[in-house]
Amino acid sequence: MHTENIEKMSGHWLLARIGKKVLRPGGVFLTQKMLSMLDITPADDVVEFAPGLGFTAHLTLEKNPHSYTGIDAEQNAVDHLNKKFNHTSALFQLGNAAQSFLPGQSVSKVYGEALLSMHADHRKAEIIQEAYRILKPQGYYAIHELALRPDHLDSNVKLDIQKELALAIKVNARPLTVSEWTGLLEKQGFTILKVETAPMHLLEPDRIIDDEGVTGAIQIAKNILFNPSIRKRVFQMKKIFRKHEKNMCAVTIIARKE
Questions:
Q1: How big is the chain by its Cα radius of gyration, in Å?
Q2: Segment holding 44, helix H or strand E
Q3: How far is Cα 101 from Cα 85, in angstroms, rounded to an integer?
Q4: What is the pTM of this model?
Q5: Which among 106, 191, 226, 240 has most CB atoms closer than 10 A?
Q6: 115 — phi, psi (to 5°)?
Q7: At 252, is the secondary structure helix, strand, or coil?
């Protein structure tokens, strides 16, 4: 395994490097809950912002939507996913979650996971506005994000968590409280339909086994144990996650364009 630039690599890609396929804060459980609430049918045209490794795309395609389009800002990711899903009707194309280049009011359901948390608030708003723009009236938008709790969390504590998260995962993470997430969606014109939360146990052994299976979990453990630079980074992230466990969770929200 190549270990160049491990110290600077974002937490997302570091975990992917060691074999982690599920990179969402609420794990498979909350992703499946999100898709269940979205209720994708063969009549739906679906868009996913930042499909990553394609894990959720696979689950979505099992529901046989009329169409599925993944929008990613990295050409390498687009090329990889188009190759990976070349036996399906899925289409992955280069674009930005804030500027997808898709026609307005052209799709019925949009979702994104572990995306908004990694952007500043004004950028979050731009991405939500783009989801609103491409959705048909009464279309659904779903997010699965990292959240802070409780809703009245002290602002200084929030800043400390955001700072330590950014240092650990090498991404300028800016999670919000659940009420702030819902408020942001409502501000952009959406009506909140459902909210579900789950513990943020991304690196806990039980969650890894649930998400990756026993075989996958064993391979991930080996990759961590036999690579000191990777082990150091993973343990740093896990330490921060555990330190702030009581003030962090994962949230999925389903909203409707009125």
A1: 18
A2: none
A3: 22
A4: 0.92
A5: 240
A6: -115, -60
A7: strand
Q: What is the pLDDT along the chain (258 residues), one digit of tens a residue?
A: 444 588 878 888 899 889 999 989 999 999 999 999 999 999 999 999 999 999 999 999 999 999 999 999 999 999 999 999 999 999 999 999 999 999 999 999 999 999 999 999 999 999 999 999 999 999 999 999 999 999 999 999 999 999 999 999 988 889 999 999 999 999 999 999 999 999 999 999 999 999 999 999 999 999 999 999 999 999 999 999 999 999 999 999 999 999
Cβ of 244: how many Cβ atoms within 10 Å? 17
Spell out the SS3 assignment of 79-94.
Answer: HHHHHHCCCCCCEEEE
- 140 three-state secondary structure: strand
CA 133 – CA 131 distance, rounded (Å)? 5
The DSSP symbol for 189 reads: T
Which alpha helices (H) appear in 64-204, and where do they start and end? Answer: 75-84, 121-134, 155-169, 178-187
CB 171 within 8 A of CB 10: yes
**Pairing assessment for the beta strands 45-49 and 67-72 based on DSSP bridges:** parallel
